[in-house]
Write a structure and sequence with these properties.
The protein has 336 residues and is mainly α. The protein has one domain. It starts with a helix and ends with a helix. The chain binds zinc ion (2 copies). The site of one zinc ion has 7 residues, from α3 and α5. The site of one zinc ion (ZN) has 7 residues, from α3 and α5.
Length: 336
């Protein structure tokens, strides 16, 4: 299938399917060529990540790793985690701030290098998750499968939310959930060239770094450990937000109709994305911490970029909510 075919199909409407829950909302594609393309990409990517991770672990135990591998591991984990959290999630999905064109390009590149599918697919899936969180239509709820049927066991639900949804026969219709992304030339450029960015992140940059500081031996170790193993661990930390943060942790905002939670260890690993209950309550907020002990590095980065004048119109919906609530409380006091 050519790239052109792929995008023609992405804009096609979802056909009706007898196999899905009767309350399934529009914009869910079941079966067909696009789902086939999704499955092919999921299997190739997971095959690369899994085999590379096994090789990376074996290399670490048999050959050992030095500052060369660890330094690039830290750099690339940081770059791709910021890319997904600040770029794909808060900038593209939720429009939490407006970037200048250079910042947008760099954040899109960093997000695409995470190897989590195209930016277009990421945005469509995540918006559908918010709209139907833990209800029929959620692509990765630990309570319902991709077709809207409840899971018989907790383990099945957790496996689906963590990884299984990448391999089921359903798909988000991006002409419903990501129309703006389909019309965004930069996002579509990254979507079309996604394999270039995956390879840059997993093989090319680690290879060059390792060869420059450690010759051929350094190159092998850095590609396997800081490229492929790091790439897989970073994907795992991201998908754990969908599986863990709808099951384990505390709920600051019990009024959300989903079962999202805040989980602090994952908040450290994902630079803030684990504050998922806060995020479901105020999805457009650029900064999602509501207490000193809730770490949100991605939010601090956005605030820093705003201070430098590199991004603007930073959304703070929870502050607006607080001000309005205080305003109405004062009004009630005055009229009492
Ligand atoms: Zn969620
Ligand atoms: Zn979100």
């Amino acid at each position: 299938m050519s790239v052109a075919d792929y995008h023609d199909i992405e804009t096609a409407a979802a056909p009706a399917h007898p196999d899905v829950h009767p309350d399934m909302p529009p914009g869910v594609i079941v079966g067909g060529p696009l789902v086939h393309a999704k499955l092919v990409e999921s299997y190739i990517l997971m095959g690369i990540f899994l085999s590379g991770s096994v090789a990376g672990l074996m290399w670490a135990f048999l050959q050992g790793v030095t500052w060369i591998e660890w330094s690039l591991f830290a750099i690339m984990y940081t770059v791709t985690t910021i890319g997904i959290g600040v770029g794909a999630h808060r900038m593209l999905v939720h429009r939490s701030f407006k970037p200048n064109v250079v910042v947008k390009f760099l954040l899109c590149a960093a997000a695409q290098m995470a190897g989590q599918g195209s930016l277009l697919k990421w945005v469509g899936n995540h918006r559908r998750h918010h709209l139907y969180a833990d209800d029929v239509g959620d692509p990765h709820s630990p309570y319902l499968d991709g077709k809207g049927w409840a899971f018989a066991t907790r383990l099945k639900g957790w496996l689906h939310a963590h990884n299984g949804w990448l391999f089921d026969d359903t798909m988000t219709d991006n002409s419903v959930y990501a129309k703006d992304m389909l019309a965004d030339p930069m996002v579509m450029m990254f979507t079309r060239t996604r394999w270039f960015w995956y390879m840059l992140s997993l093989v090319v940059i680690p290879g060059v770094w390792g060869y420059a500081f450690g010759g051929f031996h350094g190159m092998m170790g850095t590609v396997l450990f800081a490229g492929l193993l790091r790439g897989y661990l970073m994907v795992m930390s991201s998908v754990a937000v969908g599986s863990v943060c709808h099951r384990i942790g505390y709920r600051r905002f019990d009024e959300t109709r989903d079962r999202s939670t805040n989980e602090l260890i994952l908040s450290v690993l994902t630079f803030g994305e684990g504050l998922h209950n806060n995020h479901h309550r105020f999805p457009r907020d650029a900064y999602i911490s509501h207490a000193w002990y809730e770490p949100d590095l991605n939010g601090w980065i956005i605030r820093g970029l705003a201070r430098l004048g590199l991004v603007r119109d930073v959304v703070d919906a929870s502050k607006l909510h607080r001000v309005r609530a205080e305003g109405s409380a004062n009004a009630v006091e005055e009229t009492a």
